[in-house]
Amino acid sequence: MLGGYIHDLEPGDVLKPVRYVLTAEQIAWYADANEEDGDWFHSDANPWGKTVRPPTMIHSDKMRILEANVDKERRIAGMTGEGPDLTSDARIHYEYFAQQHSPAYVGEEMVVTCRIIDKYIKRGREYLHYYMEVHTGDGRLVTSYNDLTLLRYQKAE
Amino acid sequence: MGTKLLETPAPLAVGDILIGREGPVTPKQLVDYGSGFLSSAIGRPVVVGANIHTDVEAAKKSGLEAPIVDGMLSTNYLSNMMTRYFGRAYVENGSLRTKFIKPIPALMDIKVRGKVVRKTMQPTGAMRYTLDVWVEDPDGNMLVVGDATVDTP
Asked: What's the whole-model pTM score?
C-alpha cells in the first residue's frame, strides 16, 4: 500500500517516479561519503569528458523515491532528525544487486522508477524486494537494481 | 586531486586476488557516510541524525550491542575496488551483488577483497570477468559476500 510506511508496501505497488537533474555537488557528496576519491567522480578529467556518478548511486535514488512515496514515514527527514523517530523500527539492508547499463553525467535528468516485487517471511523475519531502474530524461537506461531489505530488524534470540 | 583512475582494465587471470580497503571504519566515518549519502539524496548539505550506524542508544534499541557499519558503505568499498581494477568497463557495464550476512561493528578491522573466478569470451568479442567479492574480519570470517561481472573490450 502506497502512502503509508515502508512496511506497508506490498507486491505490485508501483511507486510514483522521481525526476531530478544530476549535479556535481550530489556526486561529490556521495563519492566523498563512500571514500571514493577517484578523479572521474570529481572532475571532467575522465574518458567521457564529463563528471560521472559512482555506479552505486542508485542507492541514493532509492532514498529519493521512498521519500516521495512513503508519506507517513518521510525516511530522509527521519534520518536527518527532522522527521519522525524511526529508531524503534530499524531496517537492515540485506542484499544489493545493481547492473550498470551506461554512465550518467552531470547535468543529465535522472528518472527513477520502482516497483515492489515481493514481500515474504523467512525464519521469522520479513523481507521486502524492490526493483528499480534509473533512466536519463531522454530514455537511456543507466542502472537496474534489485534490493532486498529486512523489515523491523530485531536481534535473533 | 584524488586518485587518478585508470581507463584500461588491469591484466588479471583466473585466481587473482583483488585488494581493496583495509582497516577499521571509525564512528566519524559512519557519520560522514550518512551525512554525505543523505546530502546527495536531498540535494543540500545535511548532517545525519541518530540511527543504528551513528548512535549507541539507537543501536541498542534495535538489539545491537553497538553501532554497525552501513551495508552500503561496505558495498561501496567493493565498488571502489572494482573501479580501480576494471576502470571504464566497470562504470559502463559492471554488475555488483552483495549480501550483508553479518553486522560489521564500528572500529572492526576489515579487509575488502575480490577473486577472479572465471573469464568467458562473449559473442560480442568482449571478455567477461566474473568475480567473487567479499569483506572479511581479522580472522577471515565473511561479513559481506557477493559477486561481480565486467565485460572488458
From this structure: 0.93
